[in-house]
Amino acid sequence: MLLRDLQTGAAHPLAVGVRLRVGRGGGEAGIAPEVVCDDPYVSRLHCELELLRPGRARVVDRSRSGTFLNETRVAGAAEADPGDRLRLGHRYAFEFVATPVATPVASPAEGVEERTVALASVRGPDGEAAPPLGVPARIGERYELLHELGRGGAGVVFRARDLVRGADCAVKLFFEVSAAELRARFEREARLARRLGAHPAIVAALDQGVLPDDGGLYLVMEWVDGVNLATLAGGEGIDERRAADIAARTARAVAYAHARGVVHRDLKPQNVLLERTTGAVRLTDFGLAKDGSDALTHTGTALGTPSYMAPEQIEDLKRAGPAADVYGLGGILYTLLTGRAPFGGRGPARVLQRVLEGELLPPRKHRPGLDPVLDALCRRALSRRPEDRHPSAEAFAAKLEAWLEATGPSGASPGG
Asked: Of all helices (H) and strands (E), which one includes residue 403?
């Protein structure tokens, strides 16, 4: 696992049993952190990071001003996964990145298929072998796993090579599938990704199946060589016109799903990719999505990402209809404009409370000079009451497109 500086691109490896110190350094104690941050708002020893196991790191706060993990202040210590973002001081932002998987060197035993004996593994900065991830290096005779992209509570995502097509792909492995509901969620994600994959801005599912040894499940998705919008936004946001354009194209993809009866319910910057070569928007991860025939998730259950969940989704996931996706789109635009989530807090419970009861800080407070019309469009999408938001994802896209046209080269651009 690596800690990547979002401003410079520098990557710092994390190792089990070795603490990586981050801070300003100096002082009478002669503190010499491995990652130096030249910012008076960063403490001399601001935080310490340590790899707990492959794909999971611990963040220990040592500062006075606070260490923020995904815009939530770390209270003592917290754990981070690949894709999580670390912020400290006024201008330093980092992202945790998965370490590439090493190619297995052991040959399979005679008469035993390679997929059952070759375990993918990672190595620390000193070359020591880390515990195996417990996943096959190859699935059947078709998919060769190249390196880990990220992981969550139920499984892990790899970049892989489809040996039949001769092309790269993404493979999601699901291990904790004993529960009928989780298996049904997997089947639903695969079904919806296949149904919606005809849209050029939605990542399509290509294949699915059962792992031969442990009964786990795998889902093969098309490979996107891109950056997610959370990483793109960094700690300060991007150009306002570019932000509006990306948000509008994302909203068009969401509107396409809505027209086919599918609500995403987990719209956030991490679930939208921007292709490196073409700049195309690609929407992914329909793991929490629902369609008209959905019978999953009992009343009273709240699932999603706290900082981007609509208030009605927090209270009851089944109430999360198209308007909740409009809220998520507003959260994406907010992050693109400011580099921050709409709401933060110490722990998920505090974030959820702020979403339900707190006042949204307008984007212009983080970014003086932002066009007031764009600021208002973003705030309307994030209205607490569904009826106060833009009436649909399509309507939100149209408003953003109209703003782009009005503020283009031939129009006024008050926010520059």
From this structure: helix 393-406
